[in-house]
Fold this sequence. Notes:
Elements: E1 3-10, H1 13-25, E2 31-44, E3 47-61, H2 65-75, E4 83-87, H3 93-102
Antiparallel strand pairs: 1-3, 1-4, 2-3
Amino acid sequence: MDAFFAYITAPSVEEARRIGKILVDERLAACVNILPHMESWYAWGGKLENSQEAVLIAKTRSDRREALQRRVLELHPYACPCVVFLPLAGGNPAYLEWIHLETQETPPHA
């Protein structure tokens, strides 16, 4: 069972909460952490830009990555949002199993 962190940026904490709640509610992520007040510097449209953003770290599994990315792209206000996946090399087996169970399309306890 392969687990992944999805690293996603959002323009505000409120937007991150909205997206994160939907990802968990739709079982695309077992959990989402929201880190507020990130400062970003980036090149966009030929100019150097600076903004305050929030980071979402969504815990998911390999076979849910495409659906999670598709859903974030539908929900996100940015034209080109950051959605990247970082594979987990290991960790607490019980926690990794929990990610697997909570991202099943049908809840295990239903």
